[in-house]
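Hi R.,

Here's the input for the zinc ion complex you asked about:
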Amino acid sequence: MALRGRVLAPDPHARKLIDWPDALIRITAAGTITTIEPTPADCTIPQSWPGAVILPGFVDTHLHFPQLRILGSATGPLLEWLTTTVFPEEARFRDNGYAESIADTICQRMASFGTTTAAIYSSAHPGATEALFGALERSGLRAYAGLTLMDRNAPPAVTLDAATALTELAALVDRWHARDDGRLHVSVIPRFALSCSPNLLAAAASFARRHALLVQTHLSENLEEVRQTAAAFPESQDYLGVYEDHGYTDARTLLAHCIHLSDQEWARVRDRDMAVAHCPDSNFFLGSGCMPLRRAIDAGIRVGLGSDVGAGRTFSMPRVAAAAYDAAQVRGEPVSPTELLWLATRGGSLALSQEDRVGCIAPGFDADLVAVDVPRGTTHEVTDALLFRHDAGRVRATFVRGRQVHGERPQRG
Ligand SMILES: [Zn+2]
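And here is the predicted structure with zinc ion in place:
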């Protein structure tokens, strides 16, 4: 297959974007990019989506499957929102039929907004998580997903005891991990320290280490959460220390939010090469605060962007990038639109340790692509339009590994 159009994509070797005014991308039947080059003058292949720019698919490093139907519920801040809105909705995912009715929809929503890779929290229910993996397999999307582990401080309808959780995790790994040549991954997801007993935290960490799985959790989102965590784990030096003390110490750890970390915690995130999922739209909506993105980038920490649906109000990663722009402005520590588009693609692939396969449009990479309508212009004009013209920027097509998962078929000669 060959696709043709304007291409804007991260440089595989540098923190910058390459702008191809008119490029030809050749893709194998297995979905690997073989070449990208300026379109020759005598080329007879038409523009695949006239008026669109072709980008690497967006990487959403943080969202919640069971929160689709509560998206936009203004019942924050965090702990109140969890109690009044999230836990009652997540309890409905005990019913496999209910979970199945939402699983395909959330995959379609991601694909329709150009997201090709996502890191997804399920609920604590094995049946719902199975439904999510089934939908992900059908959708063609690339994903990291797993049970959301909770065994305390929440209603019994949304928790699972540690022994059962570990047994169910092992079954998920057997069925789904590395499925379809590594398109689907099982992830270990202790929701956050407050919802997990020390026993569950430690057991989940050793399970993740044994199977070399990505760990996802929340860290330092809200000041009251930070205060309650310190009270619940008095032996740990700080919030990050709670995770470290229970065995979460390596680069396969993806931490969502990281708004209220001390300088010392940031230094340890960097030294351990942990990754951060920055979720600015959610952070605005719940009044959680603004993460110091500029400092994290400059410290060389791997940062991806996360929609954090359903505290986040959109699946659109360009809109999340726009919120990240605003959050950086609020802090007086600006981050450029170019850097943010880089984070929404390449940054996410690095955060998920998929940097050899996705996040770039270059030979050897998987053809995870999105075509988005954009006005003609310079690189800066196009990037600004992609991020900030919320009413424009229609997603015309989405591909994962060369397979179309959403939108219009490319024009052919
Ligand atoms: Zn979250």
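One thing worth noting: The first helix runs from residue 78 to 91.

Cheers,
M.
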